[in-house]
Amino acid sequence: MYVQRIGVRFDDVDYAQIVYFPRLFGYCHYTFEDFFGRKAGVTYAELLSKRRVGFPTVHAEADFKAPLRFGDVCRVEMETMKLGKRSLTNRYRLYLGATRKLCAEISLVHVAMDLDRFQSVDIPRAVRSAFMSHRAR
Prior knowledge:
Helix content is 25%, strand content 37%. By secondary structure, the chain is of the alpha+beta class. The chain has a single domain (2-132), classed as Roll (Thiol Ester Dehydrase, Chain A), CATH 3.10.129.10. The strands form 2 sheets. It has a 5-stranded antiparallel β-sheet with strand order 1-4-5-6-3. A hairpin with a 5-residue loop joins strand 5 and strand 6 (102-111). It is globular, with a radius of gyration of 15 Å. The termini are close together.
C-alpha cells in the first residue's frame, strides 16, 4: 500500500463547505502521479514528456462516505487491485487525517498508452514492478 497525505485547501470546498466531489478524484490522481517518482524511479512528467507513455483513466467508481472540510488532512491509501499486461486497477481509500474514518473509496482503471500513436502498450517494466509491490493482499 502506498500512502500520501493531502491538505484540504480553501479552493477544494464547495458552497456546502465540504470537499467538492471531483476534487477527491484529483486527490487520487495526485497520489498516482507522485507514486511514479517515489516508487517507480521515473516521474510522471518524465514518463509523459520523454518516454511518451501515459495512463489515462478508462473506468471510475466511487462511494462517498463522509465529508472532508477546509483545513482537514486527507490520507490517501492506494493499492493495486489488478495488474494486467496493459492496464491496472487501483483502489484509493481516502481517510480523515490519522483516523480510520473512511471518507471515500474510489476505484480507477488506467491503461498504458503510447501518446504518439494513441494506442495501448505494455506497462513499462519498472512501472509494472512498482505497482506489483503495492498490490493488495
